[in-house]
Each structure stands twice: as C-alpha cells, then as structure tokens.
Amino acid sequence: MNRKIKSTGAGSGAWMTTFADLSTLLLTFFVLLLSFATMDIVKFRDAMGSIQQALGFMPVGTGVFQHTTLPTQFEKPFATSVEKKNINDLIKEELQSMVKQYGLQEDVEIETSGRGVILRVRGRIFFNTGTAELKPQAYPILEKIAEMMKRFPYRVSIEGHTDNIPIVGGRYSSNWELSAARAYSALLFLKDKGIDIKRINIAGFADTYPIASNDTEEGRAKNRRVEFVFYESRE
Fold first, then answer.
1. Which of 35, 78, 148, 156 counts the highest number of beta carbons within 10 A?
2. What class is the 87-232 domain?
3. How far apart are CA 118 and CA 120, in angstroms?
C-alpha cells in the first residue's frame, strides 16, 4: 500500500500575516492624519525664509526652507507720529500766517514755550480803554482761534493782563476785575462759535505779570494785553 505524503511547500510563517495587518493599519492611520491637516507649503516656505533672514542667515542650497534668496517685500508703513510735523509748529505757522494776512505784526506776538504756543495780542486791538467789550478788530483773530480749536485737540487758556495804572471810576473797580472780564468776553465769543467751554480756561492777572516796564507809555501798552495759550490736554 502506497502512502501519499501531502506536500505543504515552502511558505511564510504565521507572524507575517499579523505584521501585514499592523502595517496596513498604521498606513491608514497616517493617511487619516494627513487628510485632517491643511498645509500650504508655499506660504510655509515663505514664512521660514523670512524668519531665517531676520535671524541673520540664509544658507545657500535647495533645502525645504530655501524658497528664495531674496528678502521678503513689505509695504511701506504709514508715517509714524515721530515723522509727522509737531502740532505746536503747525499752530504757530497758522497763527503767523494770520498775523501777516491782517497786518498785525506790531500788535501781535507768537512764541512757543514750555506752556505751549502763546498768541499775545495788545489790548488796543481787542478793547477800548477801561472796557471789556470786544472791538470788531478782534473778530478775525478770535474766529481763527475757534477754527483752529475745531481742528486741533488742544485746550486754550485765555489770560487778561493790564498795566499798573489804577482804575478810577467806570464799570470796573480794579484791574483784577477788568482783566478777568476781558478774558471772559473772549470766552463768550468762542462759545458762540461752537467751542466747548470745557476746553477753555480763563484768568485775570491784572498787572502782576508785566512783560515790559510800566515806567513808560510804550511799556504799559505792551503790558495791556490778552494772551491765548494753546496747550495739549494731559487728561
């Protein structure tokens, strides 16, 4: 009796089946991860190139991050506040232009100080002697001040000054009252032009802050004045 022997042939071990299943599962897992991710390689390369240049190196070659050897181009930024003209200078220039326009060089002075921009106007332009009623000659100056206050975020201090000659008779009993009343008249004019009075300070200093000698008529004429101080609010 012949015995038939069944040949199994050469083949792989059973472990290969398990390994193949594991490899397939891992491949599927990574494909899923990739499908969930979004990647813009061009933008990624641009970003990395800019970072490398900012750090001071750009290696020559064809690496993944070597998208270009040219610097990244940026739009020119807007002018900063440092580059802008100082507001004090703008105010001073506009006031000087106004003085020239109306031929007020003999009666108006403009200066910049630690307090701000000072517009100094002789009293004879604004008022008659001993009064606080505004003269028509004052209107163009006050209208210009109102127009500038609407454009610039500054406050204005209105300050009345007199000479040292005592007041005798009339509506006001002292230079203190007269200087304060004159500042108040200017405030009312600006208020009528739409300026918020919260942006205005007024003061009357009588003869306590002379800018010239009160021993001469010319000196006293200089001391009789109204000053408008443009200054930036610190609030």
1. 156
2. alpha beta
3. 6
